[in-house]
Each structure stands twice: as C-alpha cells, then as structure tokens.
Amino acid sequence: MSRLADYFVVVGYNHEKDKQGVSCGKILQRFPVTDWDDTAFIDGIELFCQPQGWALSTERLEPRFFVSVLTDVDAERHYCACLTFNETVTIQPSKPVDEEEETFSGERNGLQRLPTITHHSVMYAPKALVLVSRLDYFVTFRNCLGILYAVYMDSLGPELEALVGNILGCVQVPPPGGPQVRFSIGAGDRQALQPPLSPSIPTTGVAVAQLFGQLGIKNVMTLFCAAMTEHKILVHSTAYSRLTEACHALTSLMYPFKYSYVYIPVLPSSLLEVVTTPTPFIMGAHSSVLHGMPDLMDVIVADLDGGCVSVPESCMIPQLPEPVRSLALHSLSQVLHPELHRSDFAFPTPVRPSAPMILDKEIRAVFLRMFGQLLQGYRNCLTLIRIHPTPVITFHKASFLGQRGMVDCSFTARLLDCMFFTSFIAERGPPWRPCDIFDEVYCGVNEMVRQETADRSLTVTHVQELAQNLYNNEIPSQQPYVEKIPRPTEGSFRRIHQPVFPTLNVHAVQQVIEEGRSKTNLKQRLAAIKPQPNRIVPMGPHISTLQQDGRQIVNNSARRLEVLRNCVSCIFESKISDARKSFPAVLRALKNKSARLALCHELSQHVIGNKAILDNEQFELVVRLMNCALQDDSTMDEHGVAAAILPLATAFCRRLCTGVIQFAYTCIQEHTVWGNLQFWEAAYYQDVQRDVQRLYAPRHEGRYGVIDATGSQFGSLEGDRDPGAPGWRPDRKTAEPAVLELAADQLRMRSQLEEAKLQELSSTEESTVYSQAIHYANRIVYLRVPLDVVSHRQRMNNYNERGESNSNSVTNSVADAETDSLTAESGFEDQEVTSAGVEVTRFVSRFVDKVCTEGHVTQEHIRQLHQMVPGVVAMHIETLEAVSKESKRLPSTKKPKILMPSLLPGEELLLEAVRSYLLPDGREEMTGALGGPAFLPAEGAFFITNYRLIFKGAPCDAFASELAIVRSLPISSLTKEKRISVQYLPHLDQWLQEGLQLRSNTFQLIKLAFDEEVTAESIERLKKLIQRLRAPPSIAELFAFRGQHFVAASAGSKDKQKNATLRGFAKKTLLRTARKAGLKTKASKRQKYVLSVDGRAMTSPGRMSLPPADSLEYLPGHEDELSVVDESEVSSQAGSSSSHLQTTPVESVSMERLTERSYYRDWQRLGLGQLTSSTLKRMEPFRVTAANSSYTICRSYPALLPLPCHISDISAAKVARCHRHGRLPVATWKHPRTRALLLRGSTFYGKGVRGIIMAHQATSSSSDTSVALEQEKYMSAVVAATPLSVPRPGSSWAGLSDSSLSIDSLVLQAASAQPDAAAAAGYPTLTPEMGRKVNPFSKAMNTLRFSPRSPDSEQGHHHHHHPVGGSDGAHTFQKASLYVFGDRAHIKTDSFPKTDFIPVEYSEVKQVKVAFKKLMRACVPSTAAAERDQTFLRAVEASEWLPQIQRIMQVAGAAVDLIDVQGSSVMLCLEDGWDLTAQISSVAQLCLDPYYRTLEGFRVLVEKEWLAFGHRFSHRSNLTQASMASGFAPIFLQFLDVVHQIQHQFPLSFEFNSYYLRLVAYHTVSSRFRTFLLDSELERVETGLMAAEDRCGSLSRHLRRFDPSQLDEDAFPGVPSGRPAGGSSSHGAGGAQQTQSVFDYIDRHAARSPLFHNFYYVPDTENPVLRPYCALSSLLLWDYYCGETLARGPSYDLEVVALDGQRQEETEAADGSASASGRRTLTAGYDPPHQLSDVFSYYLEEIHRLETELGHLPQQWKNVWDKMEVPNTDSLTRQASFNTQMIRHHGRYFHKRSTIDLILRGKMAGGSAAGAGAAAGVDSAQVYSAPHRFEKCNYTTPTYCDYCNHVLWGLVKTGMRCVDCGYNSHEKCVDHVAKNCTKYKAVPEPGGTPGGKDGNYERTSIGSAVASHHHQTPSQQFYDQFSSNVAENRTHEGYLYKRGVLLKSWKQRWFVLDSIKHELRYYDAMEDSHCKGTVNLAEVESVSLVPPAPGAPKKVDDKAFFELRTTKRFYSFCANDGPSAQEWIEKIQACLQ
After folding, report:
1. pLDDT, tens digit, for every residue of 927-959?
2. Which residues contact 198 (CB under 8 A, 6 or more apart)?
3. Among residues 1833, 1831, 1836, 1858, which one has the least CA distance to residue 1948?
4. Whole-angstrom Cα distance, residue 1151 to residue 839?
5. Which residue among 762, 1004, 1275, 1995 is the one 20 to 30 A from 399 at the CA level?
6. Distance of CA 1345 to CAs 1288, 1363, 1574, Å?
7. Nearby residues of 1142 by Cβ (< 8 Å), 6 or more positions away
C-alpha cells in the first residue's frame, strides 16, 4: 500500500520581490518538513501552481483546481493537485517613474504590469494549496483540497493541522487489484477510493470521450499517429483542467505502450523556451501565452477550444497501415455516431447513446483492438538471449516487417524504432508474467475480425464487450456508496473580509502523521491483497499464418522449386552443362523470397562437416547463385536470406593451390547488407537463442543447422511453399514457441532452484553469449575485409572521383551513394579511416560493445574481445594476400569472341574494341517480357568509327538466342551522353561499376555497361573521343568530307568573334562618315574555302564568288544583326549599282552552270520565267534574275530568283530590306490552271527597336516613301500576276451556291444552304439579317469578301460589284487576290489592293525541340515506366508532336485550297523564312503538283525549297561545335513526317515508298552525305561544293539518258569515287569514298532494285490535288520513331546490309544450314521490316534469274515494270461510283472547312488583338468594316469605356455611345476605336479578349456581369450569337428599379426575362440593343418578397420589393406596384422549374 499524498504544500505570493504587482511564488509551508525515504520533494513546484505567473489582481477570483505533472530524475511522474484562491493584501503607492528599477522578468513572460498606484489600494494576491502524489486519483485530490478550503473559509470546527496530517499519514491506498477504501480526513466527510484491477491499464474516467468531443475523429487520429511516431505535440486551451485531461487521454490511447518522452500537460509561461527542445514531447499551455512562444516550425499544435489541429509543412505524419486504419475509423464512427449508419433507413430505430463513462471505454476498446491487429505476430519475432539471472529479450524488427509485408510502411517502421517500443518489449516480452487485457485481445482479435468480416454487426458487439472489461477494470466494485464532501458556502470567496490562510503548526501536523502511520498495519493489509499471478503468456497465431494486407499469399510454383533443386544437384554432381541449361530459369525463380530460402536449404544439404571443397566451375556457379539470392535483398534482410547464407559462405570453398583455400565469402562481399550493424545483431541474437535452446532442451537438429537457424528466425516455410516443394516437412515445428516455453519453465522453477544452481546456469549462458560473440566477430571480419585491400581502397577512391565528372548530362549519384554506404556505419566520422583494416576493427568493436552489453557479458570478457579483434583482422588480411595472389593466377573466364562489324567504304575504326554489355532499356520487346527470345542483355564489344558508334555482340542468355545483336547510330546524330549507375547482370553474376547511355536523334538508344576488364582510363579516353567526334570545330571534319582538306588562308567570313556586332556597327559608322567626307575606302579581299580534290582546286564560278567585304556590309540582308544604313545611301548606292546589276553580263560558263540547277529547271517547267541577259520580254509575267549571283540581295537565297517582270533588281533589293534577313517573297510555284502563285519569304520587320534598326531608319521622308512605294509596287505586281483572282461578272452568292469547287460556295453552304453541317461546325443557321449581325463566321467573312464603301475605296478601285441579297448595300463583294500568311506579332498592316493578311499560329522552334525530346523519351525510353498509367500512348500524347504535325498540315491545306479552289495567290511570310515557311511551302506543293510525288520530283522539291532557299541544316542539326548549345530542332523531320501522313492516306499517289522517307530522314543527320550539311547555297559556294554539284548534276542528267544503272561515282570526274554496295571496306585515309549527294545515292540504288519504289503507284490525272485529313484521329505515329532492328542496326546504309547478307550466306553455306526452300524466319524487332519481300519484287527477281539462266542480257527492273500494262478490256473498266464521288466530295468539304476555320481563326484573333494593339503602335486590321455611329451620352451610373476600360462617370458626365451596338467610349478614345460595328457586341473566343487591356470583355455596374463573361458555359457562348431583340425569346419584360452594388443607389432599367437563354438581361432603355448585364438563372437560388430597402424610389408600394439570391450575390429589385412584383417572381420561378 502507498500514501494517498506524499506532500502538502502552501505556496503564496512573494511580496519581497514584488515589482508593480508582479512577483514570483514562494513556498510558505510544506508537510512533512523532511523528505520521505522513498520519495524526495520536487523543487520548482511554485512555477506550476500559477502557470501564467504570480501577479496581483484588482478583482477577487473564484477558487480554481487543476493538476500539473512533474517528472523527477528517475522518470517517475508526480501529480501536483493545485487549488488556488485569492487573499486580500494592502499595498503602498508605487515609486515614481524615475526611481523604478529595470523591468521585471514577468513582464517579458506575458504578465501585464499593473497601473501606477498613487494611494493606498486593496489588491488580491494568489495563494495555492498543493497535494503532491505519485497516484492519479484526481477526484479524491479535488475533494480533499476542497474540504481544507471549506474549513478555512467557513471556520468550521476541525483543525487544519489534523486534516493535513490525516491526508498525509492516515489514508493508505491499496495497490491495483485491492479492495475499495473508505475513509474520512476528520471534517465529517465520507469518501471512497477504488484502485483498478490491473496496474498496467490506465484509468481515464471520461477524458478520452471529452477529447474526441473537442477535436473529432480525424484530428485525434492525427495527434495519435504523431505521438506514436515521435513528433512534438502542443495542446492549448483556456482551461488548465482540459490540458491535463487531454494529455492524459492521448497517452492512455497508446496503451499497451507507455509514453516515455517529455510530458508536461501544464507548461508555465516562464518555461516556454522548453518547446524548442529537439526531443519529442507532449505539452499543454494556456492559450494566452501562445503569442510569446518561439516559432513552432516542427510542433503540431492542437486547439482544444477551437477543435482544430495544425500540422506544419515540415512535419510528415505517417498514417496507420491498411486495413488497420480503415477498420479503426469505421469502428470509431460506429461508436461515436451510431445514428449515422441508420440515418438512411426508411424506418430507423432510435439509438440510445452510451453513457459518457461507457463511451470512453468503447473508444479505448477500438484503439486496443487496433494495436492487437497491428502487432499480430510480434511474439514470434522475439529473440531470447538470456534467462538467468534475468530474462533478456530482443525484437527482430526486420523479420516482423518482412513477414507482415510492412517493409514500406513508414508508420510501423518508426513505431518499432521508438523508445517506448523498447520498453514494451522489455515489459511484455518475458513469457512468464502477469497477463492483462491486451494479451487476451492480442490472441483473439484475429478471430474477431474474421467473424466481423462475415457479419458486420458483430463489430459493435465485440467493441462493447471489450469496453465492459475496461470499465470493470476501472470500477471493479459495483457497490453503491454515498460520499459526503463538505463544500464552502456559496459565494464565500466574494466576502469583503476574508481570513488569511493560517500558518499551520508543524509539530501538530507531524504528530498526526506519525500517529496515523503507527495505527496503520501495512503488512497485514498487504498480506491480505493477493497480487496477480504469473502465467505463461499466450503466443497467439503464428506470424507465418497471417495474411498480408488481407490478400492470400501467392505460393511459389512447385515446378520452379523442383528446377532449382535439380540445378543444385547437377552442380554438386559435376553435371555442369546440365546445370547451365537450367541456370537462367533458376535465376528468374530466385526473384521470389521463398525460392531464395529454398536455395539456402538445398545448399546446406550438400555441406558435410564444416566446409565443402568444390572445383572451380562448381564454386563459380554456387557463388553466382548466392549473389543472385542476395541481389534483391535489402540491407534489413527482411526475409532472412543473408542470415541463411552466412554459414554457407564460410563452408563452400575451392583449393587454389597447396595450402591456399578461397572461401565463398570473398566473392559475395559487395552486397550492402554486410555493412548494416542491425543485421549482424539480429543474426547474432538468433544464433544465441538457438544455443540457449540447445542448453535447456537438447534435440535433433539439421545436418548443418541452417534450417533451424532459418526456422527459428522466420518459422518454417510451410506458409510460403507448396507441399510438393523440395525440403518441405510437415512435422517440423517452429523454434520460437519452444524457446519461450522453455524460458517460462525456467522462470517458473526459479524459486525452487538453489543459488549455486542459478549461478551455474547464469555462467553457462554467459559463456554461450561470449563464444557466439567471438564467432560473429570472425564472420564480420570475413565479410567486411575485401579480397584485395589495397587495390580496393584505390579503386573506391578513383571511382568516387570519376563520379563527379564525366558526361554532358546530369550525373547519377546512385553509385556513389551505394559505395559510400560500405563505410557509412563506422561511427568514427571525426577520425580519418586510414585503411580497410582499421575500419573493420572499429565496426567489430561497435558490434561487440552492443551485443555483449545487452547479453550481460562480463567486463573481462569484453576487454578480451577488444584485444582480440585487431589481431584477427591482421591475420585475415595476411591470409587474403595469398588468396588474392593465387586467385589472379586462375585462368580468366572465357570471354566470347569479339564480332567485328561491317564497315562502309571509307569508314575507319578509331579505337580498339571495348568489351561491354548492351543493357535493356524501357522497351520490353527485346527482353522477352512480351514473349519471344530475350535478346538483351547482350555481351559484345563497343566500336567507334569516324562515322558511327556500334555495338555488336550476342545475347548473354545463349540458350534463348544465338543471333548477333547490333545497335549503331551516327556520331553526328548523338544528342545526349549520360553516365549510368552501377549495374548488376544476373546472367553473368557481375557488378559493373561504369556505364554509358547514348541517345541519338535517329531514335536509337545504346545503353552500355563496360566489362570489368576495361580500365577507367580507357573509359575516359572513349568518352573524350566521342565528345570530340560529336562536336567538331567545323564541317570539314565530318564523315562526308573524309580524305579531303579545306585550304583557307584565314578564318571564314561567317566566323563571328566576340562583340562582332558592335564592332561592325562602329565600322559602318566610320565608313559612312569617311564616304561623306569624300574619302575612298580600300576594298578588302574576301577569303573563301577551296575544296581540294585529286590535287585540283575546285572553286566556284567567277561571278558566283563573293564581293568585297566592305561592300557586303551595306547590302540588304547582311547577317549582322545591327545593320544601320541610311535610305539616302541606299538610294545612291542603288543608283550607282543598278547598271552593275543589270548591265554587267554573267559569264557564259557561269550562266550555263546556273541554268543547270534543279530549281531553275523547275521554274522553267512551271513557267516562272527564263534567265537571259537580253532585254526581257514584257509580255511574260515573270523573269529569272541573276542579281543575287553574288548573294548580295540575300545571303541565304539562291543565286537565281524569279521576280515579276516589272520589278527591277534595284526594287527587289529595296523590298528585301523590309523582310528579315533580306528574304523577300519570291514565287516558287505557279498553278497551271488558275495561274495562282505560291510565294515564300520571311516576316515583315516589326515596330520594335530591332525592327527599326534592321529595317529602314530613314533620314528623310522621301527615302522612306521610296521603300514603301517599292514594296507596294512589288505587292501590286504579284496581285497582277494572278489573272483568275478577278471576280467574274455576274457573280453573286446565289450564283456561287451551285459550285462545289469554290470556297465561296462552301461559305454559302456553311451559312445557309447546309444548316446541319453549319450547325455541326458551330455556325447556326439564321436569317440573313441576323446572320449578318451576329454570326462570327459572317463577321470574319466581311474581311474576306466585303469592304466598306468609302470614298477612298471607291476612288482606288472602280470595280462593279453586285449587292448581296439581304444587305442594305453598305457592303460590296470583293475577293482578295493575294493572301499573306504572317506572324500575328509582325503582320503587315499597310493596306495593299486586293490583299488580305491572315495571322497564323504556329509552334516556335523551342516548342518543337521540347516536343521532340518528349517524343524520343516516349518512343525510346531509357527505363521502364515507374507507374502503370504512364503508357506509351499517353507519353506520345504528352509530347504534343502530332498536334504540331496537324498544325503544319492545316496551314498547308489552307494554302492548297486558296490556290487551287479560289485561284488566289498565297504569300508565306512566316518567322525567318527558313523553317515553317519551308515546311508549308513544300507540303503545299506536294499536295498541288503530282510531279513532286515522284522520285525525281521529290528530290527537286527538297533541293529547291530546303537547300536552295537556305534551311539551316547545320544549325538545326547541331553538326559543329558552334551550334551545339542551340539544341537539335527537327524541322526537316517534321516535313518528312507530314509527307508520311499524306502518303499513308494516299498510298496510290506516290512513286516512292515509306522506306525512302525513312532513309532520307536517317541521312539528314547522319553526316554521311553532303546534302544536308550546310545552311545555304552561299556556304556551298564558299566550300566549293556547289561547283562539284553543278558538274555532277549536269553529267548525271546526261548519263541518265542512256543507262541509269551506270550512275556510279566513277562516272563523275572531280568527284570522289566509291565502290559498289557489298564491296570490301577500306580502313585507310585514301580508301574508297561515297557519293556526296544522298539523292544520287538513292537514284543509283533505285536503278538497280525496286527498293524505294511503290508498286501501287498510279498517277491520277483527273484528281491531281491531294487534300489529306488533318484531324488528330487521322494521323499515325511514324514507324521510323519506333522501329528496332537488332540484326544489323539501322538498315539505311545499304552497303552494310549487303555485306552482312553476303557474310550470312557464306556462313550458312559453310554450315549447311541454308534452307532449300528459301524460307526465312523473321523476328519482330530483330529483322528489318523492309526486307519482307512482296510479290512484285519476287517476280522481278524471278525474271532476272530466268533471263540469266537462258543466257539473255538481263533487263533493268524499271524497264520490265514499265512494259507491264493493264489489260484494256471492258470487263476491267470501272467508273467511279456514287459512293466514291460522295467520299471525295466529303473529303473536299472538310478540307475546305479546315481552311475556313484557319482563316477565320486568324482574322478573329487579329480582331481580338486590334483593341489592345493600338497601344503598341500597331494599326489593327479591321475585322469588321462598319464604322460606329457615336453620339454624346450622359451617364448617371458608373460605366466603363469599352476601349480603355476607365470609368466614364465622373465630374464630366458625358461620353460617346454608338447608337447601333451600344459601344461606350471617351471622346478622346473615339479616334482609336476600331471600325468593327456590327450592331451587336463581338463574341469573344475562349481565352480571347475582344477589347480592353486587362482582358475584361465588358464592365458594368454589376460585378457579377463581369464574372459571367469570364466563365461562360458553352450554351451561353452559343446563345450570345443571337440578337437581344428577338421577340420570341422574351418571356417577360418591363421596367424595374435595381439597386446598384457600388453606391447602393436605385436605377430604373429595362429587364428582359429570357427562358430560352435562361437568363435575365437588363438595358438602360427599352430601345437599346446593347445589354448592360445579365443574371444567369442557373445560379439563382431563390426569389422572394422583401421589406422596403433604404433609399428606395418614393411613392412605391411596400410589396413591390423583391430579392433575387444567386450563388455570387444578392440583387434587390423594385417594381411599380405589388402585383407587378408578384408577377415577376412567378415568371422567374417558372423559368427555374
């Protein structure tokens, strides 16, 4: 028994330290005066009596009671029950201000300083009566202190000394399980005290129920999880009792755990800095002191009064694992809210709420069940170390997490690491102890949950039963007892005259205490109380029988285990070949944990004695199996694989030589599990437990003991293995229950044993623990000391240094982290680890200290162990030196033969073969995951040539496939080089420390891991070589220029230096000044490259050489970005140089060379003029000029340019100045029927600073006018060259409606003739008037076909136009002859006759780059997708590649329709004119002209549009070092993709096939050919390539007339020659070379075989124009992106393919494996898809073979194919069916619809930007051509200007308002308003803003009106197209007064209730057509009558007011009278129904 209270303390106010009413507490008296022997007095108790501080009060406070908790040095809690009250004190006046001392510390703690006292005052000082006890009987403490206060206050009879003495000495409390105690302290009171039944179960009363009532389920669960995972928790409230009860309830919920961290329920304000402690805590504080606390960055704060919990962002609170969490939440919901689950019942039964006491226990029962589920199986993971003298038990954390499947559960992992979990194991681990309710729940909760799964109603029943047990534990005695507690008189504390609490007589109190102690016979009372008996703790269900996460455990296949057993048997029976056959299957089976444990069991069966000596092959296979079993094991070793391998690692060995034996542990040291100290401790404890079991119960064990060790740790394998699995024994029992049962027996019989016997048993156990410590110290040394200590240390250092440098990509640090983990456990970070031996010694010493201290090993033995460890390490290192030396002498593993790759002629190996492994990437096709052979990983070698990066080898799994594996990519296509981390190859059992990942823009990925024999220096040399080859300083070092040299005296003209732009700017300024002064500038010679071929210098033709450098600086289009030239200088120069440009004849040789170029011949074919030096014929519309032969007009344009005949060369030079880079628009194609032109150029210069500098910074107005006139003249000439663009007489809408080939007819059909199609397109059918007013389609078409009738237009154009039906004659019909596609930001705003500018949206180059990178990652991923939803299609969609392709096709399709259907010319003025312009121009010509869909025509198209017009191939492809930083931009690849899309939709219209496109795409970036290496024709002239191409082109055309098959390189003089395909490769510098053009290469091979021919090609002369579908659903991902060919690598180098095929035929012929039938098996992903022979190729080959056999001269396949004719019989004649015509018409319709959408989108976007563009200086293009009719208007309410968005209402209440559309504007803004009146407000597109700078569409006095326009629904956008004057849409209308939202004033408005649009509109007046605002009826919640509002109109009925409530605001309305208001309410309600 123990005392009820240990101390009674009286604490009062310390008047001696008073400073203006603030002081500190002082212990006035304490009883007993001396400390008890068993309990010392705690200092500092006065701080907790007044937590907010000691201060005087001006008013009397009611007595208060609360309990504080103090913790002593022994971590025992002392409960301080405090009753505080006030006493009257008299104070003196305060000191003057100047005499005051420094501020009292209490003021800093939040105490308020009292006001200065100037006279004698009566104040109230606090005083506290405190009971200090170790027991938590809070109610009894309250009663005792209340009795003392009542006796003192009411002056009752009993003496206070007697009462205090009785409390301290007479009241004795029995321990838990004792009887009820009834006592009295001598004041006439009767009290009862009931101890609980169990000491371990906390008592809570109703505290837990109150906590849930204050915070709720979710918040309490958050606090609970935070407390269980060692977080800091702070609760605050304004009541101290709430703080204590809440903290006590929270810790009680943790039962069976005991909170062992800082616990302060009531924290004094003077100790607030305690919250900054780094340790976890649970504290409570008064809410008033929160502002004085420091920043709570990692503290979880709970507000008990507000019911909220705030969790900082830095705190991550783990949640309970599932399904434990969901079951607990469901049970809590049923307990706290029982009516919730019955609320939906049709006939709910009343639910009787539980009493607060019972509810408290039910909540605790839920948490107790939760812990029972969470800790299921924990007793099976207890490890017994010692039994005598005291039990020592540890917990195997890894085993518990692994077998429960909670390895990834952060909550469980942190719980097991907590300090109170260690205490839990120490208290509840012993098998012989008293059991409580948790042990019963632990055993039965699994069965209860199973029953509840079948019947959910049992959950509440089980919870109530458990709650009743908890209630009985807290209140075991149900006998009623009426207590009598005296209370003070009500209101006694308010008495004026109160007595001061007297000073108690110390001797009297002490005497009463002594008398009470003498009368109490503690021994008899303690003897009568029987303690709870000890018993064997039940084990509960075994952990191996539990289901993980509610799922059935998937048993391992018995067949796989049988294969594993047979493989192991074959190894030890020396059947190595048989073992290797099944080895891959065994390695795959070892992914399962059961298979790994079964492997350990099988290996242990072959150990006889202490070791098993194997031969080399057996040893290598066994070690490989061990490594494979350990590779998937974590550092925790959850499944016990590493522990099972430990004895095997010291058993298997091989003999290297006499006296030298190598054990298996030297080959498995790389795994990180050996560096985990916790693993060694757990394994050690398992072996100690096994020895203890042997000590007390010897029994039969396994042959080697591995099974017992594994079984003792994890139980048997019955739960994880099938009955048919090898090694399965049903009679084997688990070891844990036996060990704990033995320990229970020993503990039970301990009292019967003699002391000598106990000493003997204790000594034996200590010896066992000591011997195992020695054994494990040796094991750690074996596994931790590397085989080669010195070289290992050097290798690790070098490896860490290499990890910091390397590639041009992000460095992967995984390998470094894994390497550092080997030394991270040393624990001596402050000291330098000098060697591996010292590191291992320290590691072993830490292990010894830990396990020996826990195992109670004597200090002498621990000292001996520490002395022994260094010697063991040294001896082992000495032994390993001999082992390492002899192991290096073993014959190395036979490496596969290096397979040499086939090389191209001229291709050379630059580095020796590097042995490596080709690793699998994210594509699963080659790994066998999707079926088929597993080609990867492959073992071979990596080669670097001057052209490619090649890997060639064979699959590592030789039994899966024996085919050769080849992956290669051109060096110039390499986009990223990345170092990869450590790779483990299970096939070879190797850890490869270095890897490399190479990715190319040809969609190739090579992922390498270098062999272990490759040194770090070799890898570094290889990487540097790759980087040097990838980024050469110039194109001269590319493969296409091999064997040739560029001879240049100085640097090239295009090499820019630093500050070149500013230097050039300054130079031009000086030269200009010198020229004006009359000085002559000296011309400098311009150096150019000279191409040396065969000893001859090939230069460009005479007039094709560049002019002097100084003259170039003043020519337009110079590449310098700051080219400032005065217009006067240009005019003077133009005048002086005009004779030079026009009269200087081009040499005849140069003229002949120029006319041989393909683009000139194509212009001749199209009729775009002739090149002649004579006077041009004026009747020809175009001429070809050689003015740019010196590339002075534009450096990136070809030498010849087609110009209108009326445009001189000087005019062209001026026009070029208006465009970026001088790329003026020139005609590139002409329609043969409509004569419409397709022109291409760059965008116009904008109005920015750069545009002003680069364009024309005029010094006089005349020069500026000259350039403008020249530009207008040029545009007029282009328009005049479009003869069919002039409208035919008599044409009108009605006349055009029958034509199906006109865009005008399509417009008419969309607007009226085809209502269904128009409605489907978003343009509803309307009346002509309404369509003209409202339809956005008609609005935009106003710019296409209508223009306002103004004097300027009538004077400028005298064309007769018929009026359009239904119009008022304000508009006339006009069709644009020229459409200019331009950038929205740089669109030309000058008005040219019959010209329309269309803004075009397109993707910028940076967007194309990003999309391409994403596409590459999607098509060729480096790793498998981490998430299942990251599929291939989703990745392709996320790349946005196909939408960019779609956008190109849309713009090109619009150009096709405008040219072909409407007959208008199209001018492309987009970006710089060399990216998107080339794409659109090429695609449009491809669709328009069938000639470009042939092999010859496609070459001409590419040479004209991409090569001649200067696409920057070198820059976009990053071919040189200068362009590497810009990134690869696949502009040309996008064009080829578009061609592929069109070819897929029209397979009969192309002469070439898809392989042709793929080959061109591949060699665009391969740098094998010179076709795509330079940026312009000028650069080709400088390098001499143009001369070679001219010579080659003329000769090839000459030879093609005779025999196309003879187009070899030998036929071209001056061009490097090459050998035919299949020839032998040469490795010398002067070896055979390839042709320089990829198209010559294709032509040569196309003449030999139909490799590129499309046999289904049929020219269609009737429908030559192609109109492809461009919807995303019609687009197909190009197979070029996803194709994989491992047989020979990319199949686009035909020589390599032919050479490989020849070698394969020779090999098959030598082996005799060639198939007689000629059949071959093709594997997807391995064999090239284009090698699938079709029937046409087969018959052509057969004809060739038969002709050869007959002795005839074989004909070329093309000749044979051309001779084949389709039989011209009537039976085969087929007319186009109606369906075919309808489909063709449907395709045209949708293609033209896309064109119209594009134009309208551009026009409407241009109109949207018009309003905002005025501020930027851009004169907006008039989208709507009707001007506004403004009149002055007085605004009485705040209205905003629709142009500038500023308010109109102010001091001057006038503004301008359009009478047609209601447009509001300031007078100053009228001149800037766009002329776009349509008698209705423009409808903004989604995301568009028709007017205003801030994007607001309309601003009125109603705030919701603005929001409604920003968040329009689709139906609202549809209805907005209708006019507001439609009568049939007006359900109800009339005048209403509306209260404003801004000034609350009433304004009369005209309201219209529209039931069709479902809205309420209002206008200023009835005749207005422009509404001021709308109320969406979908947002209306209610409408009702309301009382009159202040400020309402006078003489209005009180019932005329009603209110409309929406989700956003309230609308107040006032009608004329009550009936009108009621009518409005009824109408609105009718619309709402």
Report:
1. 666 666 778 888 899 999 999 999 999 888 766
2. 176, 177, 436, 437, 473, 532
3. 1836
4. 83
5. 762
6. 14, 12, 44
7. 1187, 1208, 1209
pLDDT band at 131 (very low <50, low <70, confident <90, very high): very high
Give the residue-averaged pLDDT of 983-993: 63
Task: Give the model's pLDDT for residue 1767.
Answer: 57
What values do phi and psi take at 984, rounded to 5? Answer: -110, 125
Predicted pLDDT at 685:
92
Whether the Cβ atoms of residue 1323 and residue 1311 lie closer than 8 Å to each other: yes
The β-bridge relationship of strands 191-193 and 54-55 is unpaired
pLDDT for the residue 1268: 77
Joined tokens for residue 1221: 């880079």
1099-1103: long-range contacts (C-beta < 8 A, 24 or more apart)? 1099/1584, 1099/1587, 1100/1581, 1100/1582, 1100/1584, 1100/1586, 1100/1587, 1101/1147, 1101/1149, 1101/1150, 1101/1153, 1101/1587, 1102/1147, 1102/1149, 1102/1150, 1103/1146, 1103/1147, 1103/1150, 1103/1186, 1103/1189, 1103/1190
Q: Please give the Cα distance from 1501 to 1510 (Å, whole number).
A: 13
* Mean pLDDT for the stretch of residues 321-335: 91
Q: State the Cα–Cα distance between residues 592 and 559, nearest whole angstrom.
A: 13
Rounded to whole angstroms, how far apart are CA atoms 1228 and 1507?
A: 13
Backbone angles phi, psi at 246, to 5 degrees: -65, -45
Q: Is residue 241 within 8 Å of residue 289, measured between CB atoms?
A: no
Nearest-5° angle of CA 1951, CA 1956, CA 1957? 70
| DSSP per residue, 51-96 | TT-EE-BSS----EEEEEEEE-TTS-EEEEEEEEEEEEEEEPPPPP
Q: Residue 405 burial by CB count (10 A; 0-12/13-18/19+): exposed, middle or buried?
A: middle
Alpha helix (H) residue ranges in 929-1043: 1016-1030
Residues 2016 and 2000 sit within 8 Å (Cβ to Cβ): yes
**C-beta of residue 1478 within 8 angstroms of C-beta of residue 1506:** yes
| Helix segments in 1335-1475, DSSP class H | 1336-1345, 1351-1356, 1405-1419, 1432-1439, 1441-1457
Higher model confidence: residue 1737 or residue 1594?
1737
Please state, for a pLDDT cut of 70, what percent of the chain lies above it. 71
Neighbours of 1622 (CB within 10 A): 15
Mean residue pLDDT across the chain: 75
SS3 1606: helix
Burial of 1758 (0-12, 13-18, 19+ CB in 10 A): middle
| Strand arrangement, sheet containing 612-614 | 612-614, 652-657, 660-663
Cα angle at 1202 between 1201 and 1203, to 5 degrees? 110
Evaluate if residue 890 carries a pLDDT over 70: yes
pLDDT exceeds cutoff 90 at 824: no
Are the C-beta atoms of residues 567 and 583 closer than 8 Å to each other?
A: yes
The pTM for the full model equals 0.55
Distances (CA, A) of 557 to 94, 274, 720, 1929, 1993: 92, 59, 10, 74, 89
Assigned token pair, 1940: 């404003």
d(CA 1693, CA 1683): 15
For 95-129, what is each residue's pLDDT tens digit?
554 444 444 444 444 454 555 554 457 788 899 99
Comparing 173-182, 1242-1251, 1309-1318, 1538-1547, the range with the smallest average pLDDT is 1309-1318
- At residue 1171, the pLDDT reads 78
| CA dist., res. 1396 & res. 1888, Å (int) | 22
CB 1696 within 8 A of CB 1705: no
Show the tokens assigned to 1020.
Answer: 């570094």
- Grouping H, G, I as helix, E, B as strand and the rest as coil, residue 825 is coil
CA-nearest of 771, 637, 760 to 691 is 771
Per-residue confidence (pLDDT) for residue 1539, from 0 to 100: 96
Q: In which residue are the tokens 């009883």 written? A: 31
Residue with tokens 């002392």, as numbered in its chain: 78
Mean pLDDT over residues 176-193, rounded? 87
